[in-house]
Specification:
The protein is an alpha+beta fold and 323 residues long. The protein has eleven helices and 13 strands. The protein has helices at residues 11-24, 31-34, 51-64, 134-141, 145-155, 157-160, 164-171, 183-198, 204-208, 226-239, 310-322; strands spanning 41-43, 46-48, 71-80, 83-95, 109-121, 124-132, 179-180, 209-216, 222-224, 244-253, 260-271, 285-297, 300-308. The strands form two sheets. Strands 7-10-11-12-13-8-9 form a seven-stranded mixed beta sheet. A six-stranded mixed beta sheet has the order 2-1-6-5-4-3. Strand 1 (41-43) and strand 2 form a beta hairpin. Helix 4 packs across helix 5.
């Protein structure tokens, strides 16, 4: 932990503690301590490039869900010479108690899932890639994620018609495609995703996924076994049959008495040229920005969390149709 405060003994502690102190202790002012003034925060809905943007976003989310806990399910760390990369998967229970983007407060209980990738140097977060399963969240509030996403795109089309290349670049790492950890394991997981997404070879699941795979996908979908997991992939592929997958950041973490864990930040860009998960084909470009976590047992994937914000997909479709 070179150039980090001595109160943090490990990278995992740093990520969990600053998250707790900012959000649950409501120490929003401490963003000055742990976020660089020009820290970019990237999401499928746009980019924030100043600390005041991060302040506004944090305060706005606290208003919507003032009693929300942020519970770290896992923090997958990739050590670097000048800091570390982290991929933080968090489950957040709370209640919808504030009026705002989701309409009037409903008092409904929610449990949201998010993954935040952070580049940390000199006791600061210097870049962040943030992804929430917003489709699942709005469903729990009582909204239709398709209508919610389409409204986002119709009201603000310029935010969602930047093009696939700009969206892909938003998700990319400035250093290319860093692989931290065992490259053999990283390449095997990356090759599996390439076969699934780009080559549409769903049979690869028989080789690389455990028969008892537990898969959590977009929209809060939870399924077990290869056939049901494959159905989620095939439904997305049917909507974007010409899409191409690209990795942007891979971490393999091996620790005693823990399963091998892998994190990938990735994109899948193509055209909405088929009838599948995203409804009747529209012919517009779509960029899916995703982050996936994996746990391996005996070399096969036994647990996978694939976070995609599908409201941003519906927003892109509506925005191109509006503009």
């Amino acid at each position: 932990m070179q150039n980090f405060s001595p109160e943090f003994q490990t990278p995992e502690q740093y990520i969990i503690d600053i998250t707790y102190k900012i959000w649950e202790e409501r120490g929003v002012g401490r963003l000055h301590d742990w976020y660089a003034a020009d820290c970019p925060v990237h999401s499928p809905h746009g980019e924030e490039n100043t600390l005041i943007d991060v302040f506004n976003h944090t305060l706005g989310t606290m208003h919507l869900f003032p009693n929300r806990d942020i519970l770290a399910e896992d923090v997958i760390i990739g050590d670097k010479a000048d800091g570390f990369l982290s991929s933080h998967r968090a489950r957040s229970p709370g209640r919808h108690l504030g009026d705002g983007i989701y309409g009037p407060a409903t008092n409904r209980p929610i449990v949201s899932l998010a993954i935040a990738d952070c580049l940390c140097q000199n006791n600061m977060v210097v870049a962040e890639w943030l992804l929430r399963d917003q489709a699942s969240l709005v469903q729990q509030i009582g909204l239709d994620p398709v209508a919610f996403g389409r409204e986002l795109g119709s009201k603000n089309p310029e935010a969602y018609t930047v093009g696939n290349e700009a969206m892909r670049q938003r998700w990319a790492d400035p250093e290319g495609v860093p692989i931290i950890g065992d490259t053999t394991i990283a390449n095997r997981i990356n090759d599996t995703y390439t076969a699934l997404w780009s080559d549409k070879q769903l049979k690869i699941m028989d080789e690389q996924y455990d028969r008892a795979i537990r898969f959590e996908g977009p929209g809060g979908q939870l399924c077990y076994g290869r056939p049901r997991t494959g159905n989620i992939f095939s439904s997305i592929l049917a909507s974007m049959p010409d899409g191409r997958y690209e990795p942007h950041h891979l971490i393999v973490r091996q620790q005693p008495e823990r399963p091998v864990r892998v994190a990938i930040r990735w994109s899948y860009c193509g055209t909405h040229s088929g009838n599948g998960r995203y409804g009747e084909k529209s012919g517009v470009p779509i960029a899916i920005l995703g982050i996936s976590h994996f746990e391996l047992r005996d070399g096969k994937i036994v647990n996978e969390w694939m976070v995609v914000d599908e409201t941003a997909v519906y927003a892109q479709i509506a925005a191109y149709q509006t503009s």
